């Protein structure tokens, strides 16, 4: 019986070996094309990394010296000539964080809930199609257009003063479509089998979304939110139009001028080319990069802790 089994299995094994050898015999032309395509891919990656590394090296090398002092993190530029050494960026950091916090508190819930509606409830109805169309339009709106819209509505029409709150409102227009589009894509990646299994167990739809769909897509959603925050923190047009420049610290976004890191960089740019002024300019740029880096690391830790995969 053993010999018969061996006799039967040997032709099959020979056929499998023959097929595997046939697939392994790739022509030299295909190997050449594959090698050339791999070369193009690696070269494209290398070329794309050159400006990124160049920018990072320039910002770090030129902005590292001023941020290593304690005064940079604890004092403002109030009472200090911009052309002279001294002072710090505390006023700009506070303004940037306050404006970004207000923008995030308003934009994140609106963006996530809108994306949930488009993916889970719209089912291609008219409201869903209109919303998707408007989101696509808002995604490409320049920041200066959003700033001018808030200026004409909030300041000219309603009569409010220029302030950090007005800046935050314009940033909401820029942040919401980014969050909606990213969250929408992340929710669509979640397999429908998970939803159907939950429905089969009698779980309501809202609880399925809250307990299964959102935790599964949490990592991608958090990444998209942080990219949106990084974008709005570096915007300069809204702060130019909607808030006055100041060298003093202002915690209140509703009254008076309120500086930010992009606005501080612009002030230093207009102040001249003195070495101290350029150091402060590059220091503000590096500070903004570090703040965004810290926020991204924190978001990664949060998503890793609360993700359903963990």
Automatic annotation (TrEMBL):
One of its GO terms (molecular function) is phosphate transmembrane transporter activity. CDD domains: TM_PBP2. The keyword Transmembrane applies. It is a multi-pass membrane protein. Residues 93-303 form the ABC transmembrane type-1 domain. InterPro entries: MetI-like (IPR000515), MetI-like_sf (IPR035906), Phosphate_PstA (IPR005672), Phosphate_transprt_permease (IPR051408). The chain crosses the membrane at residues 39-60, 92-119, 131-157, 163-180, 212-233, 281-302. One of its GO terms (biological process) is phosphate ion transmembrane transport. GO terms for cellular component: plasma membrane. Keywords: Cell membrane, Membrane, Phosphate transport, Transmembrane, Transmembrane helix, Transport. Its main location: membrane. It holds the Pfam family BPD_transp_1. It is found in: Cell membrane. Part of the binding-protein-dependent transport system for phosphate; probably responsible for the translocation of the substrate across the membrane. Belongs to the binding-protein-dependent transport system permease family. CysTW subfamily. This is Phosphate transport system permease protein PstA. It comes from Corynebacterium gallinarum. The gene is pstA.
